[in-house]
């Protein structure tokens, strides 16, 4: 939304400045918002002089509102003057007496946000209210006691008329018929009958080939120009403004504009005012105002059955920024403040013609977004058919009173203390402008020092901040009671895992208590891990293979060992029968575990007790003894062949025992059962 507002801010479409006629033709009131939030509605009484210089009468009165004022509309119907005000989520209606005193009638709340409000030129107290949801409501307020009103929804369509456009902006105005309204969005304008069935209507303007629109052209403002009166234009004429062109469309001939003119304004034309003719039979002036302060004056003719056309070329009026040269030269900082104040966006436009016997004088009032009201006096020409070479240079005059008023305004502006620069986080991103988020108040010296240094543009050093806060380490997850793998990995990461093995092996064993046996997964994995884990490498000539590089595939199995022998046996021999300890020690001295086997082969000896005294193992020991006597004279008998290594990896445990015993020395016949 911020990015779209930088491109086009349509909140003040229609203008927030209005001229209320007073008790005499020379006296009127300017109605405009002011204040930092534009939430105060001011009523300033002004007297017009024959020379065109307005005189301020007294101090302005004001009404405090609960929201910013976005649009101010006035209309006089049947001698009754009404004042309508639109805010973001509220619309209010006042009735102004001939003495200029406003009396409130009613306030309407718009849940989805109001985008436009229009007063009926036919019936007093009737308004058209537009919402961001695509709904158009007809609001009728009547005075008296009690105050009564009626709100009726006459149209609703969340989608745009012609093609898809994401803008929620909607606009409505009245037509020559009291019960027919125009509904507009960024793509076109449609006429709807309030008494007909819902959904019926006729397109009045389409953004496309019928109107010879350019690529990307969008509707910015629609306004009904056929006011009732003897000096009005055709009662079926409508004004449609886009960012490129101006169109005049007749209700009787929809889709085909009667007049098209490229205005060439550098900013969006969101303000338009149709002025009364200077003399009967003269063209009617049309004032077009851009959001950037640019003004153009057009003269439209075409009464009765004639086609509307432009009477002479349009005139470009000087903007507020062009009057910068009339101010005295200031220092650079004050000059920049003055220039920024004069270049504030225009959010309101009002006109009044001063009574004069010689040349009519147009009093032009502009309201800026900063809350300043500027006055400009313009001498109008009655003959616009042959404007001459200086047609594009209107006659603008400066009186001594104007110069003195500008000097007083400049003095008051410079006396105001400039707002202190408030540091904010950068809000620009790729094709987006994010909203400002207030920083949370964090106690401490570091955030405050950072903000102060960035606001002043100074270099921040370490000594200015003191000790930096240290981040607390995240809490470690506690392993479960059965998570043995995590315990083993933590012990291996912290250091030698020998202590963990001793604690684990002696955790469940004790006098009179048998250790808990785990279920075997496969014979190959349990036997292989039991033969390669619990080894004492202090006496063996093979390379050292620490138990930290063990595989987490098999779970450790506490052996069955008498308590009297646990303190005298070596670590790898716990739970191994004494008759087999020398056999395993001699074999592991010859087996090249460090170079030929992967890391998974060095699993801890967890299930050594699974090797029992069976008959097939007795035969295996005899075969090992016979093979050892044949291989003692062989040069390569110190290592195990690769074929035996592969067979040890892939064969079951019954084929693994002869391979493991292939390099054992000849020894005595074991006792019975072993």
UniProtKB/TrEMBL annotation:
<dbReference type="Pfam" id="PF20643">
    <property type="entry name" value="TAF1C_C"/>
</dbReference>
<feature type="domain" description="TAF1C C-terminal">
    <location>
        <begin position="558"/>
        <end position="619"/>
    </location>
</feature>
<dbReference type="Pfam" id="PF20641">
    <property type="entry name" value="TAF1C_beta-prop"/>
</dbReference>
<feature type="compositionally biased region" description="Basic residues">
    <location>
        <begin position="665"/>
        <end position="674"/>
    </location>
</feature>
<dbReference type="Pfam" id="PF20642">
    <property type="entry name" value="TAF1C_HB"/>
</dbReference>
<feature type="region of interest" description="Disordered">
    <location>
        <begin position="594"/>
        <end position="674"/>
    </location>
</feature>
<dbReference type="InterPro" id="IPR049090">
    <property type="entry name" value="TAF1C_HB"/>
</dbReference>
<dbReference type="InterPro" id="IPR038801">
    <property type="entry name" value="TAF1C"/>
</dbReference>
<feature type="compositionally biased region" description="Polar residues">
    <location>
        <begin position="631"/>
        <end position="654"/>
    </location>
</feature>
<feature type="region of interest" description="Disordered">
    <location>
        <begin position="466"/>
        <end position="488"/>
    </location>
</feature>
<dbReference type="InterPro" id="IPR015943">
    <property type="entry name" value="WD40/YVTN_repeat-like_dom_sf"/>
</dbReference>
<dbReference type="GO" id="GO:0001164">
    <property type="term" value="F:RNA polymerase I core promoter sequence-specific DNA binding"/>
</dbReference>
<protein>
    <submittedName>
        <fullName>TATA box-binding protein-associated factor RNA polymerase I subunit C isoform X6</fullName>
    </submittedName>
</protein>
<feature type="compositionally biased region" description="Polar residues">
    <location>
        <begin position="523"/>
        <end position="532"/>
    </location>
</feature>
<dbReference type="InterPro" id="IPR049087">
    <property type="entry name" value="TAF1C_beta-prop"/>
</dbReference>
<dbReference type="InterPro" id="IPR049089">
    <property type="entry name" value="TAF1C_C"/>
</dbReference>
<feature type="domain" description="TAF1C beta-propeller">
    <location>
        <begin position="84"/>
        <end position="226"/>
    </location>
</feature>
<feature type="region of interest" description="Disordered">
    <location>
        <begin position="504"/>
        <end position="566"/>
    </location>
</feature>
<feature type="domain" description="TAF1C helical bundle">
    <location>
        <begin position="336"/>
        <end position="532"/>
    </location>
</feature>
<feature type="compositionally biased region" description="Polar residues">
    <location>
        <begin position="603"/>
        <end position="618"/>
    </location>
</feature>
<dbReference type="GO" id="GO:0001650">
    <property type="term" value="C:fibrillar center"/>
</dbReference>
<dbReference type="InterPro" id="IPR036322">
    <property type="entry name" value="WD40_repeat_dom_sf"/>
</dbReference>
């Amino acid at each position: 939304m911020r990015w779209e507002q930088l491109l086009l801010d349509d909140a003040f479409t229609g203008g927030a400045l209005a001229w209320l006629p007073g008790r005499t033709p020379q006296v009127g009131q300017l109605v405009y918002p002011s204040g930092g939030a534009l939430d105060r509605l001011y009523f300033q009484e002004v007297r017009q002089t024959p020379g065109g210089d307005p005189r301020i009468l007294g101090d302005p009165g004001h009404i405090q509102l609960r929201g910013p004022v976005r649009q101010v509309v006035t209309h006089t119907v049947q001698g009754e003057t009404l004042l309508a005000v639109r805010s973001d989520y509220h619309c209010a209606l006042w009735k102004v007496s001939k003495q200029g005193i406003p009396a409130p009638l009613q306030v309407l709340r718009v849940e989805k946000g109001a985008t436009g409000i229009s007063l009926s030129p036919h019936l007093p107290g009737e308004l058209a209210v537009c919402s961001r949801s695509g709904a158009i409501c007809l609001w009728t307020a009547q005075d008296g006691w009690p105050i009564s009103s009626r709100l009726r929804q006459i149209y609703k369509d969340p989608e745009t008329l012609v093609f898809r456009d994401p803008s929620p902006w909607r606009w409505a105005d009245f037509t020559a018929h009291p019960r027919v309204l125009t509904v507009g969005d960024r793509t076109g304008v449609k006429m709807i009958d309030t008494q007909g069935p819902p959904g019926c209507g006729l397109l009045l303007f389409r953004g496309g080939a019928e109107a010879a629109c350019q690529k990307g052209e969008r509707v910015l403002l629609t306004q009904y120009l056929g006011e009732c009166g003897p000096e009005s234009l055709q009662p079926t004429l409508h004004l449609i403004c886009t960012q490129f062109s101006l169109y005049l469309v007749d209700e009787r001939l929809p889709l085909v504009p009667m007049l098209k003119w490229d205005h060439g304004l550098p900013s969006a034309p969101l303000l338009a005012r149709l002025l009364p003719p200077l003399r009967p039979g003269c063209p009617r002036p049309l004032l077009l105002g851009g959001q950037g302060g640019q003004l153009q004056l057009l003269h439209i003719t075409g009464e009765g059955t004639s086609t509307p056309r432009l009477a002479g070329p349009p005139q470009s009026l000087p903007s507020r920024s062009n009057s910068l040269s009339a101010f005295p030269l200031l220092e650079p900082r004050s000059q920049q403040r003055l220039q920024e104040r004069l270049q504030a966006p225009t959010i309101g436009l009002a006109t009044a013609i001063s009574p004069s016997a010689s040349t009519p004088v147009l009093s032009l009032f502009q309201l800026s977004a900063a809350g300043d009201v500027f006055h400009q006096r313009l001498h109008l020409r009655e003959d616009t058919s042959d404007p001459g070479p200086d047609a594009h240079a209107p006659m603008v005059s400066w009186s001594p009173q104007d110069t003195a008023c500008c000097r007083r305004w400049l003095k008051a502006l410079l006396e105001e203390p400039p707002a202190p620069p408030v540091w904010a986080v950068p809000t620009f991103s790729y094709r987006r402008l994010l909203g400002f988020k207030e920083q949370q108040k964090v106690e401490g010296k570091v955030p405050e020092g950072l903000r102060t240094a960035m606001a002043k543009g100074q270099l921040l050093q370490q000594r200015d901040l003191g000790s930096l806060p240290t981040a607390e380490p995240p809490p470690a997850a506690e392993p479960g009671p059965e998570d043995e793998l995590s315990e083993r990995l933590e012990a291996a990461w912290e250091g030698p895992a020998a202590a963990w093995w001793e604690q684990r092996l002696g955790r469940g064993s004790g006098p009179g208590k048998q250790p808990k046996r785990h279920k075997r997964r496969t014979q190959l994995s349990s036997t292989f891990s039991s033969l390669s884990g619990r080894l004492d490498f202090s006496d063996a000539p093979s390379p050292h293979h620490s138990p930290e590089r063990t595989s987490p595939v098999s779970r450790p199995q506490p052996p069955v060992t008498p308590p009297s022998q646990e303190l005298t046996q070596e670590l790898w021999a716990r739970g191994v029968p004494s008759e087999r300890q020398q056999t395993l020690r001699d074999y592991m001295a010859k087996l090249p575990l460090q170079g030929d086997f992967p890391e998974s082969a060095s699993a801890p000896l967890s299930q050594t007790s699974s090797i029992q005294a069976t008959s097939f193992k007795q035969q295996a020991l005899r075969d090992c003894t016979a093979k050892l006597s044949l291989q003692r004279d062989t040069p390569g008998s110190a290592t195990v062949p690769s074929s035996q290594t592969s067979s040890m990896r892939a064969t079951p445990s019954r084929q693994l025992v002869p391979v493991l015993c292939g390099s054992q020395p000849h020894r005595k016949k074991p006792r019975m059962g072993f």
